[in-house]
Each structure stands twice: as C-alpha cells, then as structure tokens.
Known about the structure:
single chain, mainly alpha
Amino acid sequence: MPSEVIVTDKELPSDVIRAIAAGRKIEAIKILREKTGLGLANAKVLVDRAWRVHGPKKDTYGAAGSGAAAAKLIVSVLAILGLVAAWYYFT
C-alpha cells in the first residue's frame, strides 16, 4: 500500500468522492485507507472534510415529503374540527 499525503479533496480518489456523494461515509473511509495506506483517524478527517463539499445535500425545508405530511395533518385537523362542529350543532 502506498503512503501518500493528501492535502485537498481534489486529490482524493474518484471512487471515494462517489461514495461520499452517495452518502456512504464508512465505505469512503475504507476505500481511502485501502488506496493510500492512511490510518483510520487521518482518513476520517479527510472524508469528513470532503463530506462538507461533496456529501448529500440536505433539504433546507425539512425532510423529503414533509409537505405531503403537513397537508395530511391539516386535512385531519380540519376533519376533526368539522366533526366537532357538527356534533355541537346537532346536539
């Protein structure tokens, strides 16, 4: 195993970048260690640094599908209010 000094994420192997982009951080660390001979701590630091740039992007408005969940909640609350109003009106 060659011992290389990697300074930037541009020097990381492309399969490490692909693993990071896919959200597989542990796999990226394993690949980096195999390709470079780095220790666990150093490989983790480099992958963490590259994760900030190449990692999966977070949804800034919450989890995916949260809009549908919010709509279902609103419909449920309105249905319950309608039932309460009908009960109140007819009793």
